[in-house]
């Protein structure tokens, strides 16, 4: 029976490519019966990556237990971010770089988590530790995951590991890091091609904070004015999605990848928690200015969690 390997729902580039890279690692480890799959369609940035390196997109699954008993998780561990029937399968391995929350298993498993910028950084370490081979194509996919999660090494989540690993992978892949990286990041910022729902839900994750469900979406842009121009429709979508799915609060972080700033839009009952988390007030246009904030994992979730638990 094939073991399925996948990242979180609404997969970003690191989630999807780390599933591919960890599947290849497992095959070289002597576990051939694995398949990298996805819990959603690739976004525009990830499509650019797959097209560039001529890698077919993994098939999308909605459930896992209908076809396997065992799964491996990459780039996530929280069950609300995983496949909907995660409780009905056995998790045999996790490779992740996020917080560990609401996660438990009935059986022992392989678990590797490091506080680094990308899941692919950890998997690259594992390839090196075992002396396994990384093809030029796989190197490009792994580099892309790191570029995405670290915003080309500009995010505060970037560590010395990424600064060492990314140039090595770029060399293996035969790409110019700056040229390719910027083109890749810009490919994901075409808001004109995105619906309001795509903007809000395209890279959204749910978190449990003090017993409440907080949904946090993030979208990369090259001009925050594009978000401001669509604010009314975006806020209506946040409200509709929150009410339909039972989210207590739904936050959208729009991030200017060129200037490393963000603005926040939100709907919900706990907007005071957002203000407390960031030490700023919503302005007259109901926007939260977040200068220097680019990382949901490091700069949004931890202070918001602290505000809820205060």
What secondary-structure arrangement, pairings included, does this model have?
Blueprint: E1 3-6, H1 13-29, E2 34-36, H2 44-52, E3 70-74, E4 90-96, E5 110-113, H3 119-130, H4 136-150, H5 160-173, H6 177-187, H7 196-201, E6 205-209, E7 212-221, H8 225-229, H9 231-245, E8 249-256, E9 261-268, H10 271-278, E10 288-291, H11 296-309
Parallel strand pairs: 1-2, 1-3, 3-4, 4-5, 7-8
Antiparallel strand pairs: 6-7, 8-9, 9-10
Describe this structure in words.
The chain is α/β, with parallel strands linked by helices and 310 residues long. The protein has helices spanning 13-29, 44-52, 119-130, 136-150, 160-173, 177-187, 196-201, 225-229, 231-245, 271-278, 296-309, and strands spanning 3-6, 34-36, 70-74, 90-96, 110-113, 205-209, 212-221, 249-256, 261-268, 288-291. The protein contains eleven helices and ten strands. The longest helix is centred in the N-terminal third of the chain and has 17 residues, at 13-29. Helix 1 (13-29) packs parallel to helix 3 and helix 4 packs antiparallel against helix 5 (160-173). Strands 2-1-3-4-5 form a five-stranded parallel beta sheet.
């Amino acid at each position: 029976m094939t073991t399925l390997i996948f990242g979180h729902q609404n997969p970003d580039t690191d989630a999807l490519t780390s599933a591919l890279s960890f599947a290849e690692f497992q095959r070289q480890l002597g576990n051939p019966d694995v398949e990298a799959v996805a819990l959603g369609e690739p976004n525009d940035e990830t499509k650019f990556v797959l097209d560039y390196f001529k890698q077919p997109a993994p098939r999308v699954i909605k459930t896992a237990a209908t076809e396997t008993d065992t799964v491996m998780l990459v780039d996530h561990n929280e069950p609300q971010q995983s496949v909907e029937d995660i409780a009905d399968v056995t998790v045999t391995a996790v490779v992740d770089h996020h917080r560990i929350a609401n996660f438990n298993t009935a059986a022992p498993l392989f678990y590797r988590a490091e506080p680094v910028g990308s899941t692919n950084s950890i998997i690259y370490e594992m390839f090196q530790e075992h002396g396994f081979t990384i093809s030029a194509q796989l190197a490009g996919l792994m580099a892309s995951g790191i570029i995405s999660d670290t915003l080309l090494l500009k995010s505060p989540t970037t560590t010395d590991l990424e600064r060492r690993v990314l140039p090595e992978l770029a060399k293996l892949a035969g790409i110019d890091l700056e040229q390719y990286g910027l083109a890749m990041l810009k490919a994901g910022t075409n808001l004109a091609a995105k619906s309001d729902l795509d903007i809000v839900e395209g890279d959204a994750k749910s978190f449990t904070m003090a017993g409440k469900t907080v949904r946090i979406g993030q979208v990369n842009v090259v001009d925050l004015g594009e978000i401001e121009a669509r604010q009314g429709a975006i806020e209506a979508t946040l409200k509709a999605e929150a009410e339909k799915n039972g989210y207590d609060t739904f936050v959208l972080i729009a991030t200017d990848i060129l200037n490393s700033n963000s603005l926040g839009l939100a709907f919900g009952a706990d907007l005071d928690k957002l203000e407390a988390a960031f030490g700023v007030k919503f302005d007259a246009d109901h926007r939260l200015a977040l200068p220097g904030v680019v990382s949901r994992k490091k700069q949004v979730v931890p202070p918001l969690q602290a505000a809820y638990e205060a």
